[in-house]
Amino acid sequence: MRNKFKSVFPIDSNEGRLFKLPIIAGFFLSYLSVLLTQYKINASLNSTIGVTLIIAGQLLIYLFSDTIFKRRYWLYFVIQGIIIFNYVFITPKGYTTIFHGLIPVLVFQSITVYYEALKVIITSIFFYSIYCGTITLFHGVKELIQYIPILLLITIAVRVYSIIFLEQVKLRIRTRKILQELEFAYERVAELTLTNERQRVARDLHDTLSQGLAGIIMQLEAVIANLNNKNPKRAQEILQKSMEHARKTLSDSRLVIDDLRSKTTADIDFVMAVEKEITQFKAVSNISVAADIRVKAPIPVKITKHIVYIVREALNNIAKHAKAKNAVVKIIAAGNQLSISIVDDGIGFDVKVLDQQFGHYGIIGMTERVRTIAGKIKIKSKKKSGTNINITIPIEKGLYDENGKEKNIGSR
Question: Among 139, 161, 182, where does a domain finish?
Answer without folding.
Answer: 139
